[in-house]
Amino acid sequence: MINREIHFAQRPSPQPNDDCFKLVESQLSEELEEGQVLIKNLWMSVDPYMRPRMNDVKSYIPPFQLDHVLEGGAIGVVMQSKNPKLAVGTHVESMNGWREYFVSNGKGLGIRDTSNIAPQDYIGILGMPGITAYVGTKVLGEAKAGETVYVSGAGGAVGTLVCQIAKALGCTVVGSAGSDEKVDWLLNTAKIDAAFNYKTTDDFAGKLAELCPKGIHLFFDNVGGSQLDGALLNMRKNGRAILCGTIEDYNEAPEKRHGITNMFKVVTLGVTVKGFVVLDYMAEYHQAFIEDMANWRAEGKIVWQETVFEGIAKAPEAFLGLFSGANLGKMLVKLADS
Ligand SMILES: NC(=O)c1ccc[n+]([C@@H]2O[C@H](COP(=O)([O-])OP(=O)(O)OC[C@H]3O[C@@H](n4cnc5c(N)ncnc54)[C@H](OP(=O)(O)O)[C@@H]3O)[C@@H](O)[C@H]2O)c1
Hints:
CATH class of the largest domain: Alpha Beta
Number of helices: 10
Low-confidence stretches: none
Largest sheet: 7 strands, mixed
CATH topology of the largest domain: Quinone Oxidoreductase, Chain A, domain 1
Number of strands: 15
Helix content: 25-40%
CATH architecture of the largest domain: Alpha-Beta Complex
Bound molecules: NADP nicotinamide-adenine-dinucleotide phosphate
Number of domains: 2
Shape: globular
Mean pLDDT: 98
C-alpha cells in the first residue's frame, strides 16, 4: 500500500517555510510479523514545541533529524493486527504523527477508549495541551478565587483552556491574542472578563494596567519576550508568573530575541517566576486533571475549540500557521474519517 509522510528537509534559518518539509510517498508492506499492527492515523497534532526541535541544539527533547519523517502526537486506528493486545478497530495514541500509516510492534502505543470521546480529544483537550493548561494554572500557578489572572497567547490551545480553568476556579481573567476574532471568542464564548488584540495595541503595558487595575496575581505566559516584559510592569506584590512558552522568540536568531528589561520588578515586587515542561508533571497529575476536566465540562464551564486542516499534504501549512496565528484553539490535521 502507498503511505504518504512528511520528512524534515531543511532546518529553518530561522524562519520556517515550505522548504523545511518534503512530502514523501513510499510502499508500506502489509505483510505483518507476529506482534505487529498496521495503524491508520486519523488525526495528528502540530505544536509550537516542534519548532525548537528543528534547531540542531541540545534541549529537553532531541532535535528532529534531517531527511527523516517528523514526529508528533497522533491518534489512529488498528487496521490489521498480529498482536493479541491490539484488536482491529482499536484506537491508539502515538508519537508517530506526520504520516498516514505505520507498522508498529505495539511499543509506545496507548489504547484509547473512543466510545464517548472524540478521538482527537486525546491529542487536544484531554492530551498535552489540556494537562499543560491544568498544571500551569491550578497546580503550579495555584490560581485562587478572587485573583486576577492574565493569560498571553489566550486564543490558542493552551491559552483558551487556561482562561476557562481560571474562570472555573473563580478568578478574574484577562487575555491577549493576535486577532479581533480571537478576542471576540474569548469575550463571548469563553466569557472571560477582558481581552485585547496585542497586535493593534500601541501601549501593551498600559493596556494591561487599564484591564488589571488591581495588578496581576498570576500571569500564565505562552509568549515570552515583549509580552513577558510588559506583564512584569503590572504584577502585584508577591505575584506569580508561570512561564509555559516563549513563542515570540522561537523563530528568532538568538541575538534577535527580545531581552527582558523589567527584571528589577521581579526583585522589588517579590514575583515568583516558575517555568515548566509538562512532561515532568504528567504522571503525577494526569488523574486529577481528567477528573477536574470531566467535572468542569459537565458543568458547562469549558468550551473546546479546534482549527482543522485536512490531509497530510496540509500538515506543513498547519504547522506554519501556528506562527502567523492561523489557529483559534487547537491546531489539528485530520488525516482520515475512520
Ligand atoms: N511548557 C510546556 O510543557 C508546554 C506545553 C505545551 C505548549 N507550550 C507552549 O505554550 C504556548 C502555546 O502552545 P499551544 O500549543 O497552545 O499553541 P497555540 O497557542 O495554539 O498556537 C500558537 C499561537 O501563538 C501565537 N503566536 C505565534 N507567534 C507569536 C508571536 N511572535 N508573538 C505572540 N504570539 C504569537 C499565535 O496566536 P496569536 O494570534 O495570539 O498571535 C498562535 O496561534 C507555546 O509557547 C508552546 O510552546 C508549553
